[in-house]
Amino acid sequence: MSKEFEERRPNIKRYKRIYPHAGSKDYKLGKEMAEIAIERYHILKACLQQKYEMIHNTTPSMGTQIFPVQQLDFSAYKDFKIKRTQSMKFRPLEDGTIDASRITESHRNMKDDWKQSEGDILYSAVTLDFFLPILNYNSISGTTGSEEWDKLFGTLKEKNYPADIIPCMVRVFLSIYLAEFDLGHYL
Protein backbone atom coordinates (compact mmCIF):
# COMPACT_ATOMS: atom_id res chain seq x y z
CA MET A 1 0.00 0.00 0.00
CA SER A 2 1.39 3.41 -0.90
CA LYS A 3 2.24 5.95 1.76
CA GLU A 4 -0.10 8.45 0.11
CA PHE A 5 -2.99 6.00 0.39
CA GLU A 6 -2.11 5.27 4.03
CA GLU A 7 -2.30 8.97 4.84
CA ARG A 8 -5.71 9.40 3.18
CA ARG A 9 -7.31 6.24 4.55
CA PRO A 10 -5.27 4.97 7.51
CA ASN A 11 -7.96 2.73 9.03
CA ILE A 12 -8.81 0.63 5.97
CA LYS A 13 -7.41 -2.87 5.89
CA ARG A 14 -6.72 -4.49 2.54
CA TYR A 15 -8.59 -7.66 3.44
CA LYS A 16 -9.95 -9.51 6.38
CA ARG A 17 -9.89 -13.28 6.56
CA ILE A 18 -13.32 -14.53 7.53
CA TYR A 19 -13.89 -18.11 8.61
CA PRO A 20 -17.33 -19.62 8.10
CA HIS A 21 -19.32 -20.68 11.13
CA ALA A 22 -19.52 -24.41 11.77
CA GLY A 23 -22.72 -25.79 10.30
CA SER A 24 -23.13 -23.01 7.72
CA LYS A 25 -23.41 -23.76 4.00
CA ASP A 26 -19.98 -22.23 3.40
CA TYR A 27 -18.45 -24.39 6.11
CA LYS A 28 -20.01 -27.55 4.67
CA LEU A 29 -18.89 -26.61 1.17
CA GLY A 30 -15.37 -25.94 2.39
CA LYS A 31 -15.21 -29.24 4.21
CA GLU A 32 -16.48 -31.08 1.13
CA MET A 33 -13.91 -29.35 -1.10
CA ALA A 34 -11.11 -30.22 1.33
CA GLU A 35 -12.17 -33.86 1.45
CA ILE A 36 -12.29 -34.07 -2.36
CA ALA A 37 -8.86 -32.45 -2.64
CA ILE A 38 -7.43 -34.90 -0.09
CA GLU A 39 -8.86 -37.89 -1.96
CA ARG A 40 -7.44 -36.63 -5.24
CA TYR A 41 -4.07 -35.93 -3.64
CA HIS A 42 -3.98 -39.58 -2.61
CA ILE A 43 -4.98 -40.71 -6.11
CA LEU A 44 -2.03 -38.72 -7.46
CA LYS A 45 0.29 -40.11 -4.80
CA ALA A 46 -0.86 -43.71 -5.41
CA CYS A 47 -0.30 -43.26 -9.13
CA LEU A 48 3.20 -41.86 -8.64
CA GLN A 49 4.06 -44.73 -6.29
CA GLN A 50 2.56 -47.15 -8.85
CA LYS A 51 0.30 -48.66 -6.22
CA TYR A 52 -2.45 -49.65 -8.60
CA GLU A 53 -3.31 -52.53 -10.83
CA MET A 54 -4.90 -52.26 -14.25
CA ILE A 55 -7.89 -54.55 -14.61
CA HIS A 56 -8.58 -55.37 -18.26
CA ASN A 57 -11.87 -55.98 -20.03
CA THR A 58 -14.14 -54.80 -17.27
CA THR A 59 -17.85 -54.49 -17.88
CA PRO A 60 -18.69 -50.91 -18.81
CA SER A 61 -20.97 -49.11 -16.39
CA MET A 62 -23.37 -48.07 -19.18
CA GLY A 63 -23.70 -51.60 -20.57
CA THR A 64 -23.66 -50.32 -24.14
CA GLN A 65 -19.91 -50.24 -24.77
CA ILE A 66 -18.63 -52.90 -27.15
CA PHE A 67 -14.93 -52.04 -26.90
CA PRO A 68 -12.70 -53.37 -24.13
CA VAL A 69 -12.28 -51.04 -21.19
CA GLN A 70 -10.05 -51.03 -18.14
CA GLN A 71 -10.12 -49.86 -14.55
CA LEU A 72 -7.41 -48.99 -12.07
CA ASP A 73 -7.66 -50.77 -8.72
CA PHE A 74 -5.89 -48.92 -5.89
CA SER A 75 -6.20 -51.61 -3.20
CA ALA A 76 -2.38 -51.79 -2.96
CA TYR A 77 -2.34 -48.20 -1.68
CA LYS A 78 -2.79 -48.25 2.11
CA ASP A 79 -2.51 -44.56 3.15
CA PHE A 80 -6.11 -43.75 2.16
CA LYS A 81 -9.01 -45.78 0.79
CA ILE A 82 -9.38 -45.02 -2.91
CA LYS A 83 -12.22 -46.41 -4.99
CA ARG A 84 -11.53 -48.23 -8.22
CA THR A 85 -11.75 -45.95 -11.27
CA GLN A 86 -14.66 -45.97 -13.67
CA SER A 87 -14.32 -48.13 -16.75
CA MET A 88 -12.14 -46.21 -19.20
CA LYS A 89 -10.46 -46.85 -22.54
CA PHE A 90 -6.80 -46.67 -21.49
CA ARG A 91 -5.67 -48.86 -24.41
CA PRO A 92 -1.99 -49.13 -23.48
CA LEU A 93 0.36 -50.37 -26.19
CA GLU A 94 2.19 -53.70 -25.82
CA ASP A 95 5.12 -52.06 -24.00
CA GLY A 96 2.79 -50.28 -21.55
CA THR A 97 3.16 -46.84 -23.12
CA ILE A 98 0.24 -44.74 -24.35
CA ASP A 99 0.10 -43.51 -27.94
CA ALA A 100 1.72 -40.05 -28.16
CA SER A 101 -1.28 -38.56 -29.97
CA ARG A 102 -3.55 -39.55 -27.07
CA ILE A 103 -1.14 -37.96 -24.57
CA THR A 104 -1.10 -34.73 -26.60
CA GLU A 105 -4.88 -34.79 -26.85
CA SER A 106 -5.21 -35.31 -23.07
CA HIS A 107 -3.06 -32.29 -22.29
CA ARG A 108 -4.95 -30.21 -24.86
CA ASN A 109 -8.27 -31.28 -23.33
CA MET A 110 -7.10 -30.27 -19.86
CA LYS A 111 -5.87 -26.92 -21.14
CA ASP A 112 -9.06 -26.21 -23.11
CA ASP A 113 -11.50 -27.20 -20.35
CA TRP A 114 -11.69 -24.21 -18.01
CA LYS A 115 -12.49 -26.34 -14.96
CA GLN A 116 -9.49 -28.59 -15.50
CA SER A 117 -7.31 -25.63 -16.44
CA GLU A 118 -8.20 -23.66 -13.29
CA GLY A 119 -8.38 -26.66 -10.98
CA ASP A 120 -5.10 -27.99 -12.32
CA ILE A 121 -3.86 -31.49 -11.65
CA LEU A 122 -6.00 -32.37 -8.62
CA TYR A 123 -9.22 -31.40 -10.36
CA SER A 124 -8.30 -33.69 -13.25
CA ALA A 125 -7.20 -36.59 -11.03
CA VAL A 126 -10.30 -38.68 -11.78
CA THR A 127 -10.41 -38.19 -15.56
CA LEU A 128 -9.07 -40.17 -18.49
CA ASP A 129 -7.08 -37.06 -19.45
CA PHE A 130 -5.18 -37.39 -16.16
CA PHE A 131 -4.67 -41.15 -16.18
CA LEU A 132 -3.27 -41.45 -19.72
CA PRO A 133 -0.21 -39.24 -19.04
CA ILE A 134 0.25 -40.95 -15.65
CA LEU A 135 0.22 -44.42 -17.21
CA ASN A 136 2.74 -43.25 -19.79
CA TYR A 137 4.91 -41.72 -17.03
CA ASN A 138 4.97 -45.06 -15.23
CA SER A 139 5.85 -46.95 -18.43
CA ILE A 140 9.27 -47.34 -20.06
CA SER A 141 8.64 -43.92 -21.67
CA GLY A 142 9.02 -42.18 -18.28
CA THR A 143 7.25 -38.98 -19.34
CA THR A 144 3.78 -37.50 -19.04
CA GLY A 145 4.23 -35.55 -22.24
CA SER A 146 4.45 -32.33 -20.19
CA GLU A 147 7.74 -30.94 -18.90
CA GLU A 148 5.82 -29.16 -16.13
CA TRP A 149 4.20 -32.39 -14.90
CA ASP A 150 7.43 -34.37 -15.20
CA LYS A 151 9.25 -31.75 -13.11
CA LEU A 152 6.44 -31.64 -10.52
CA PHE A 153 6.36 -35.44 -10.23
CA GLY A 154 10.13 -35.61 -9.84
CA THR A 155 9.97 -33.01 -7.06
CA LEU A 156 7.08 -34.79 -5.34
CA LYS A 157 8.97 -38.09 -5.32
CA GLU A 158 12.21 -36.45 -4.21
CA LYS A 159 10.56 -34.58 -1.31
CA ASN A 160 8.30 -37.42 -0.13
CA TYR A 161 5.02 -36.14 -1.65
CA PRO A 162 4.37 -32.83 0.15
CA ALA A 163 0.80 -31.74 -0.61
CA ASP A 164 1.57 -28.03 -0.40
CA ILE A 165 3.55 -27.94 -3.66
CA ILE A 166 0.78 -29.40 -5.81
CA PRO A 167 -0.88 -26.68 -7.89
CA CYS A 168 -4.62 -26.68 -7.42
CA MET A 169 -7.40 -24.17 -6.99
CA VAL A 170 -8.05 -25.22 -3.41
CA ARG A 171 -4.44 -25.27 -2.20
CA VAL A 172 -4.79 -21.96 -0.36
CA PHE A 173 -8.20 -23.03 0.85
CA LEU A 174 -6.77 -26.30 2.16
CA SER A 175 -4.00 -24.61 4.10
CA ILE A 176 -6.59 -22.45 5.89
CA TYR A 177 -9.14 -25.14 6.67
CA LEU A 178 -7.30 -28.45 7.12
CA ALA A 179 -6.60 -27.87 10.76
CA GLU A 180 -10.13 -26.62 11.41
CA PHE A 181 -11.67 -29.73 9.83
CA ASP A 182 -9.13 -31.95 11.58
CA LEU A 183 -8.19 -33.55 8.25
CA GLY A 184 -4.47 -32.76 8.34
CA HIS A 185 -3.62 -36.31 9.36
CA TYR A 186 -4.55 -37.48 5.83
CA LEU A 187 -1.64 -35.55 4.30
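The record above closes out task 2.4. Task 2.5 opens with a second protein, given below.
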Amino acid sequence: MTSLYCKRFHARLIIIKLFQTVELSILQSKLFKMKKHYLIKIFALALLFSAQLGTSQGLSDYCGAVLKHQNINDGSHDDTGIKVTVSNVDANTIYVEIESDGTGTVTTLLIDPAGETSREATNDGSKFRITFTYDTPPATVNLVILWNKDNFGGNRQLNLSNIPFANTCNVDPADDVSLASLTQLEN
Protein backbone atom coordinates (compact mmCIF):
# COMPACT_ATOMS: atom_id res chain seq x y z
CA MET A 1 0.00 0.00 0.00
CA THR A 2 2.89 2.33 0.80
CA SER A 3 4.43 1.97 -2.66
CA LEU A 4 1.06 2.67 -4.31
CA TYR A 5 0.72 5.79 -2.16
CA CYS A 6 4.25 6.87 -3.15
CA LYS A 7 3.46 6.34 -6.83
CA ARG A 8 0.30 8.43 -6.54
CA PHE A 9 2.14 11.19 -4.68
CA HIS A 10 4.99 11.18 -7.22
CA ALA A 11 2.54 11.31 -10.15
CA ARG A 12 0.70 14.24 -8.62
CA LEU A 13 3.99 16.11 -8.12
CA ILE A 14 4.78 15.55 -11.81
CA ILE A 15 1.33 16.89 -12.76
CA ILE A 16 1.84 20.00 -10.59
CA LYS A 17 5.25 20.63 -12.16
CA LEU A 18 3.75 20.14 -15.63
CA PHE A 19 1.06 22.75 -14.89
CA GLN A 20 3.62 25.23 -13.57
CA THR A 21 5.76 24.81 -16.71
CA VAL A 22 2.83 25.05 -19.12
CA GLU A 23 1.26 27.98 -17.30
CA LEU A 24 4.54 29.92 -17.34
CA SER A 25 5.14 29.34 -21.03
CA ILE A 26 1.57 30.30 -21.95
CA LEU A 27 1.58 33.46 -19.85
CA GLN A 28 4.85 34.54 -21.43
CA SER A 29 3.53 33.88 -24.91
CA LYS A 30 1.92 36.52 -27.12
CA LEU A 31 -0.25 33.72 -28.49
CA PHE A 32 -2.17 33.16 -25.25
CA LYS A 33 -5.54 32.76 -26.95
CA MET A 34 -4.23 30.12 -29.36
CA LYS A 35 -2.55 28.11 -26.61
CA LYS A 36 -5.44 28.26 -24.15
CA HIS A 37 -7.05 25.13 -25.59
CA TYR A 38 -3.80 23.18 -25.00
CA LEU A 39 -3.86 24.16 -21.35
CA ILE A 40 -7.46 22.98 -21.09
CA LYS A 41 -6.52 19.63 -22.68
CA ILE A 42 -3.54 19.14 -20.39
CA PHE A 43 -5.59 20.05 -17.33
CA ALA A 44 -8.38 17.63 -18.27
CA LEU A 45 -5.89 14.85 -19.04
CA ALA A 46 -4.12 15.42 -15.71
CA LEU A 47 -7.40 15.28 -13.81
CA LEU A 48 -8.38 12.04 -15.49
CA PHE A 49 -4.92 10.56 -14.91
CA SER A 50 -4.97 11.61 -11.27
CA ALA A 51 -8.43 10.08 -10.79
CA GLN A 52 -7.21 6.79 -12.22
CA LEU A 53 -4.35 6.69 -9.71
CA GLY A 54 -6.96 6.27 -6.98
CA THR A 55 -7.80 2.72 -8.11
CA SER A 56 -6.06 -0.26 -6.61
CA GLN A 57 -5.77 -2.08 -9.94
CA GLY A 58 -2.63 -1.79 -11.97
CA LEU A 59 -1.54 -3.19 -15.27
CA SER A 60 -0.28 -6.75 -15.03
CA ASP A 61 3.30 -7.50 -16.08
CA TYR A 62 1.91 -10.59 -17.79
CA CYS A 63 -0.38 -9.45 -20.61
CA GLY A 64 0.70 -11.77 -23.40
CA ALA A 65 4.30 -11.72 -22.16
CA VAL A 66 6.52 -14.18 -24.04
CA LEU A 67 8.34 -16.33 -21.49
CA LYS A 68 10.54 -19.42 -21.81
CA HIS A 69 11.44 -22.43 -19.70
CA GLN A 70 12.80 -21.16 -16.35
CA ASN A 71 13.07 -17.68 -17.94
CA ILE A 72 16.22 -18.79 -19.78
CA ASN A 73 16.75 -16.34 -22.63
CA ASP A 74 20.15 -17.40 -23.95
CA GLY A 75 18.72 -18.96 -27.14
CA SER A 76 18.89 -22.54 -25.88
CA HIS A 77 15.16 -22.63 -25.05
CA ASP A 78 13.64 -20.59 -27.87
CA ASP A 79 11.36 -23.48 -28.86
CA THR A 80 9.78 -23.49 -25.37
CA GLY A 81 8.26 -19.99 -25.56
CA ILE A 82 4.71 -19.32 -24.44
CA LYS A 83 2.61 -16.16 -24.16
CA VAL A 84 1.45 -15.75 -20.57
CA THR A 85 -1.43 -13.58 -19.41
CA VAL A 86 -2.31 -13.23 -15.71
CA SER A 87 -5.23 -10.91 -15.03
CA ASN A 88 -7.70 -10.08 -12.30
CA VAL A 89 -11.37 -10.74 -13.09
CA ASP A 90 -13.07 -9.53 -9.90
CA ALA A 91 -12.52 -9.30 -6.14
CA ASN A 92 -12.00 -13.07 -5.76
CA THR A 93 -10.99 -14.30 -9.22
CA ILE A 94 -7.99 -14.25 -11.54
CA TYR A 95 -7.25 -16.08 -14.77
CA VAL A 96 -4.08 -17.40 -16.35
CA GLU A 97 -4.01 -17.79 -20.12
CA ILE A 98 -1.27 -19.61 -22.00
CA GLU A 99 -0.73 -19.91 -25.73
CA SER A 100 2.20 -20.76 -27.95
CA ASP A 101 4.56 -18.02 -29.03
CA GLY A 102 4.36 -19.44 -32.56
CA THR A 103 6.86 -22.29 -32.19
CA GLY A 104 4.68 -25.38 -31.87
CA THR A 105 1.35 -25.84 -30.11
CA VAL A 106 0.85 -26.08 -26.35
CA THR A 107 -0.55 -29.56 -25.72
CA THR A 108 -0.48 -29.86 -21.91
CA LEU A 109 -0.79 -27.29 -19.14
CA LEU A 110 -0.68 -27.58 -15.36
CA ILE A 111 -0.77 -24.55 -13.07
CA ASP A 112 -0.52 -24.56 -9.29
CA PRO A 113 -1.31 -21.20 -7.67
CA ALA A 114 -1.84 -22.68 -4.17
CA GLY A 115 -4.75 -21.66 -2.00
CA GLU A 116 -7.50 -21.32 -4.59
CA THR A 117 -10.99 -22.53 -3.72
CA SER A 118 -11.94 -23.60 -7.24
CA ARG A 119 -10.63 -23.64 -10.79
CA GLU A 120 -12.18 -23.85 -14.21
CA ALA A 121 -10.14 -24.71 -17.31
CA THR A 122 -10.90 -24.15 -20.98
CA ASN A 123 -8.94 -24.89 -24.15
CA ASP A 124 -10.07 -23.57 -27.54
CA GLY A 125 -7.33 -25.41 -29.42
CA SER A 126 -4.86 -22.53 -29.39
CA LYS A 127 -5.19 -21.09 -25.87
CA PHE A 128 -5.48 -22.67 -22.45
CA ARG A 129 -7.29 -20.55 -19.88
CA ILE A 130 -7.62 -21.46 -16.22
CA THR A 131 -9.73 -19.30 -13.91
CA PHE A 132 -8.94 -19.44 -10.19
CA THR A 133 -11.41 -18.36 -7.51
CA TYR A 134 -10.47 -17.69 -3.88
CA ASP A 135 -12.66 -17.33 -0.78
CA THR A 136 -10.12 -14.87 0.57
CA PRO A 137 -7.86 -13.64 -2.22
CA PRO A 138 -4.18 -13.11 -1.45
CA ALA A 139 -2.47 -9.78 -2.08
CA THR A 140 -0.06 -11.55 -4.45
CA VAL A 141 -0.08 -14.85 -6.29
CA ASN A 142 2.79 -17.26 -6.90
CA LEU A 143 2.39 -19.57 -9.90
CA VAL A 144 4.16 -22.77 -10.91
CA ILE A 145 3.39 -23.38 -14.58
CA LEU A 146 4.19 -26.68 -16.32
CA TRP A 147 3.56 -27.07 -20.06
CA ASN A 148 4.39 -29.20 -23.03
CA LYS A 149 4.45 -28.33 -26.73
CA ASP A 150 4.23 -30.61 -29.72
CA ASN A 151 7.68 -29.51 -30.95
CA PHE A 152 9.64 -30.91 -27.99
CA GLY A 153 9.41 -33.81 -25.57
CA GLY A 154 8.91 -33.40 -21.85
CA ASN A 155 7.50 -30.63 -19.71
CA ARG A 156 8.87 -27.15 -19.23
CA GLN A 157 8.52 -25.16 -16.02
CA LEU A 158 8.17 -21.51 -15.09
CA ASN A 159 7.88 -19.98 -11.61
CA LEU A 160 6.24 -16.57 -11.35
CA SER A 161 6.31 -14.90 -7.93
CA ASN A 162 4.56 -12.00 -6.24
CA ILE A 163 2.08 -11.18 -8.99
CA PRO A 164 -0.33 -8.56 -7.57
CA PHE A 165 -3.78 -10.18 -7.40
CA ALA A 166 -5.59 -6.94 -8.33
CA ASN A 167 -3.59 -6.25 -11.52
CA THR A 168 -5.42 -6.63 -14.80
CA CYS A 169 -4.79 -6.78 -18.53
CA ASN A 170 -8.21 -5.40 -19.34
CA VAL A 171 -8.44 -1.77 -20.34
CA ASP A 172 -11.96 -0.40 -20.13
CA PRO A 173 -12.50 1.97 -23.09
CA ALA A 174 -14.14 4.40 -20.66
CA ASP A 175 -10.84 4.53 -18.75
CA ASP A 176 -8.68 5.00 -21.86
CA VAL A 177 -7.42 8.55 -21.60
CA SER A 178 -5.71 10.25 -24.51
CA LEU A 179 -5.53 13.73 -25.97
CA ALA A 180 -7.49 12.47 -28.98
CA SER A 181 -10.47 11.85 -26.69
CA LEU A 182 -10.32 15.45 -25.48
CA THR A 183 -10.67 17.19 -28.87
CA GLN A 184 -14.16 18.40 -28.03
CA LEU A 185 -12.67 20.62 -25.32
CA GLU A 186 -11.10 22.84 -27.99
CA ASN A 187 -14.45 24.45 -28.87
